[in-house]
Each structure stands twice: as structure tokens, then as C-alpha cells.
Amino acid sequence: MHPFSSLEDEQRRSLLKYYREQEVAGNVAIKSDDFRDGQLLVVNYTDQFNESTAPDDWDWRMEVARGCVLFKAAGCAPEIVVKAMPKFHGYKHCPEAQRHLDADGPLTIMQKFDGSCILVACFRGEVLIFTRGAWHNPQTRFARSLMSEETMAALEQMEGRTLAFELIHERDAKCEQNRGPNRLVLLYVCEATGLIIPVTELESVAQSLHINCVVCEVATGNEVMQRIEHLNSTTCLRDLREGFVVEISGKKIQSEVSDLPASCKISGSSTEQGLARQMFPWCKKFL
Known about the structure:
Largest sheet: 5 strands, mixed
CATH superfamily of the domain at 115-216: DNA ligase/mRNA capping enzyme
């Protein structure tokens, strides 16, 4: 279940107070926009917090400050609009995941394209499209352009649900070139009740939306560890083009490789090579 699923009015008030305090501390950014009789508040942890905080030091409220959206009207407790996909850490920081991998347990591997994250919810009868940091920006406009009228009609029937998509678009600066046609890929669905649908069951939702679904495959812990070993032995950046996500018992985990091997071949200018070496740990992970 999503951590937001059972919050009462006072707990949601305390949640917003906590996020305001974290905003002052520079740990989250809150983007507010007028909406009907109140405001939509998009909450996203900052890069500085993400990069400087050890996995064991994350509070659960920060883990869900990953594009979560609250609605606040004067004199009323905040309402949850978007139950964002919680932050997931490396498997080395998750004893449950380590035990599962060591036992060669079953899991699901999902393909990752590193596009922009798009979050969609139907709130008070209106379909709202967000990125992790804003309600309106170029990425949300690109996403809307890829949604047919059939898609919008289906979303209007999903009041209370949160859906996360990966945006692959040639005009999105975050997305690498040659990623295929412009499209949205369904990654995550959280029901109004807070139930997070397993990735293996997303296909029927994607079909109802006339949208692509993330490609996934059933695997085992040993197979995942073999893939990690393969990444560890990589000698060319082009071999790191694709990443993958692993879901174990409904929870997503990732693994990082900290250093770029000296044998890794990088082409381009000295500046490009330096940037590639800085980015390498982020390429070599499943996230």
C-alpha cells in the first residue's frame, strides 16, 4: 500500500507542515498553482538532498516527496492528488532485497529508457498532468499531445488513481536521441485505495488507455546478479545505453557501480569525456 493511503486530516496537515519546513531547509521544492478554490502543491525533493543524504537517513515522507501533489483550500486539510512512486534505494541498503537475491527468489525486470517522468491523476473530474516538479511545462505539453481523446476519456473514469508514465519525445532535452517514436510508456499505477498495482498487471490498464506498457520479464535473483556483473565488466559507454528496474514483492530496488573502469572507451571532446565520467555511476544502475 502507498504510505499516503491511510492518512487522516490531521496527519495530512502535519505532512504539509513537514514539507514546508523541509522547503525552508532547502530539502524540497514546492511549486504552487491556483486550482479552483485552492492551490495545487507539487512537492519534489531537491538534487542537493538526494545526492547528500545516505539511503538509511531518508524519512518516509521524503521518499514520497518525489512529485507528490497536494491540494490545499483555505481552512481545510490538504487532499492527496498524486500518490507518487516512492524513492527506491540500492539493494545493498535493503536487507529484504538482499535476502531475496541471495535466495535466488523470483522478481520482475523492467526496461528503462531514462525519459521524463509524467504523473497523471483525475482530481475533481479533471485530468491533471504533472512532471515531478511542475504542473505546466514543456514535458507536460508533450505528454498531452501524445494522449488521444480515447486516452483522455479513459483517464476521466479513473478518479483518485495515480499513473506514472515515461515520456519519450524527440524535443525533450532529457531524452537521448534515437529512442524510437515519440510515446508514453505506462510504468506505475496506484489505485485510489492506495494499492500499488504490480508491474506484471499493468498491461490491461495500458490497453484501456491505448498507451504502451513497460516491457518486463520474470527473472530470478541469480539472473539479476549476473546482469550486475556484466555491467561491472563493461568497457564501452555505448554498452550502458539501457538501464533496468527490478521489482521484488511490489518494491523497486536499484544497484549502482561507483567507478568508471580505466579501460572504458569514451569518444568526444575532453569536456564530453569528463561529463561522461561524472555520469557513469548513474548510467550503470537499475533505477
